[in-house]
Write a structure and sequence with these properties.
Helix 3 crosses helix 5 and helix 10 packs parallel to helix 18. Helices cover 33% and strands 17% of the residues. By secondary structure, the protein is of the alpha/beta class. It has three domains: 124 residues, Orthogonal Bundle (Fumarate Reductase Iron-sulfur Protein, Chain B, domain 2), CATH 1.10.1060; 163 residues, 3-Layer(bba) Sandwich (FAD/NAD(P)-binding domain); 161 residues, FAD/NAD(P)-binding domain (3-Layer(bba) Sandwich).
Length: 474
């Protein structure tokens, strides 16, 4: 620890966001950057704790005190090497991770956690700018071939490590470009897609092969897959969105959040969307149902599309501003979260359920919502109760369903492979991420359910390690 008193003498300083009146007119990244001095000062605040709870809280096990110290010393290349040793693409998590590491930082006890996520992003960008990040081409090949199905964070993480182990890896992606939900689900104002392209270019130089516009199970059959590859890693996510089974769900103007977000990302990438298929919030009253990150992304995108108004509702009660007594540090805090999109001008309401959607001539015009309260039954299970007489009819021309995902899509590849599912409908795996079929492994949301990008990266690492072991045992 270069400056043992920095955490007492230097305050936490966030980079902050571009001005609202500027950023809502474009899709550029909203987050700003600090200059080198400020960033080094922020890294100096790391206490190098005897027990680094930040490392404990990070799903990929980032060696945070070590690389923070190197940043403090201005040794950007070495800092990147330590950071990259646990994460195949820290420039992405440095932008979009909710930073569980910061929530478990010892300084978070006083709400002054080290700016770990921002420091991470800055470290990688410095390393790129200084020319430290170059392709690492494996010197030997094993002759083994691995197929990775899905190019999201779990798939790319597994593919990178398996390629570095010397195996020949092919990544299959059903969409037109690599990245999965990193590319098609996360808005450009949070993650510019050139960041993904830059890393993919490195992966390709290192020998990874990518096949886009290939829907495995249709364009490539189960038999072809099993015949060509020695092992398979399923990393195709949990794409079965939770639906809203209410009257009026079929009306024109009701869409899943991912339909809306992925279409906008494709438009920004230059893809043509016919007018009849375009989902636009322009001039409309927008209702976002669901209070999570995806819902927040719908808010920011709707605002940029010049919506007339945006209302985001959540069925659960409004979280507290500070931790409750049953939610102590260093655990993840279940508290109110306000994103950059929320700051751009939307109304947020909690404890509301959607009763029905109302239309005219098949087109959405209104929504009926009702206030709900939560209580526990005799067995301690939560129960939702509608508050009589609290019904409201609101004007709405666009509803975006952002209530999470239930499971991976079974129809097609997964059913064809004949693998087992768990009680939640996810692909069933053992501790080695191995499915009921010996040479098929699974990593990320497809086997765990929808979760964080950083958890998917770690799942990819675990799968890669065990696939490598399996291949050498064959």
């Amino acid at each position: 620890m270069g400056n043992p008193k920095a955490f007492m003498t230097i305050d936490r300083k966030d980079a902050g966001y571009r001005p609202v009146k500027e950023r809502i007119y474009d899709y550029g990244e909203v987050e700003q950057t600090l200059d080198d001095k400020d960033r080094i000062d922020q890294a100096a605040r790391c206490m190098d704790c005897g027990v680094p709870f930040c490392h404990w809280g990070c799903p990929v096990g980032s060696k945070i005190p070590e690389w923070q110290h190197l940043v403090y010393q201005g040794r950007w290349g070495e800092a990147y090497e330590v950071l990259h040793s646990t994460n195949s693409f820290p420039e992405i998590t440095g932008r979009i991770c909710p930073a569980p590491c910061e929530k478990s930082c010892v300084l978070e006890i006083h709400k002054e956690a080290v700016t770990i996520r921002e420091n991470e992003c800055s470290t990688v960008e410095h390393a790129f700018d200084l020319g430290y990040i170059l392709p690492r081409i494996p010197q030997q090949r094993t002759g083994k071939k691995v197929a990775v199905i899905g190019s999201g964070p779990a798939g790319l993480s597994a593919a990178d490590l398996l390629n570095q182990a010397g195996h020949s890896v092919t990544v299959f992606e059903k969409n037109s470009a690599v990245g999965g939900l990193l590319r098609f689900g996360i808005p450009d104002f949070k993650l510019n897609k050139s960041v993904i392209d830059r890393r993919i270019n490195i992966f390709e130089a290192e020998g990874l092969a990518f096949r886009t516009n290939v829907n495995v199970g249709i364009d490539v059959t189960r038999e072809e897959l099993l015949k060509e590859f020695d092992a398979i890693v399923l990393a195709n996510g949990a794409e079965q969105a939770r639906d809203l089974p209410v009257e009026g769900r079929e009306l024109k103007g009701v869409h899943f959040a991912m339909e809306f977000l992925s279409q906008q990302n494709k438009v920004i990438a230059g893809e043509y969307i016919p007018d009849g298929e375009r989902i636009s919030a322009e001039g409309k009253n927008v209702l976002v149902i669901g209070g999570g990150d995806t819902g927040s992304d719908c808010v920011g995108t709707s605002i940029r599309q010049k919506a007339k108004s945006v209302l985001q509702i959540e069925i659960m009660p409004k979280p507290s501003v500070d931790r409750e007594s049953n939610n102590p540090w260093p655990y993840w805090p279940t508290v109110l979260r306000t994103s950059s999109s929320h700051l751009e001008g939307c109304e947020r309401r909690w404890g509301l359920s959607t009763k029905r959607l109302i239309g005219e001539n098949g087109v959405l015009k209104h929504a009926e919502i009702i206030r709900v309260e939560w209580s526990k039954d005799a067995n301690g299970r939560w129960m939702m109760n509608e508050v009589e007489g609290s019904n409201e009819i609101i004007d709405v021309e666009l509803v975006l369903l952002s209530m999470g995902f239930t499971q991976p899509v079974h129809n097609g590849l997964l059913d064809a492979l004949g693998i087992d599912y768990d009680a939640r409908g996810n692909v069933k795996v053992n501790t080695k991420k191995q499915t009921s079929v010996a040479n098929i492994f699974a990593a990320g949301d497809v086997e765990s359910g929808a979760s964080l990008v950083v958890r998917a990266i770690e799942a990819g690492k675990v799968a890669a390690r065990n696939v490598n072991e399996y291949l050498f045992e064959k």
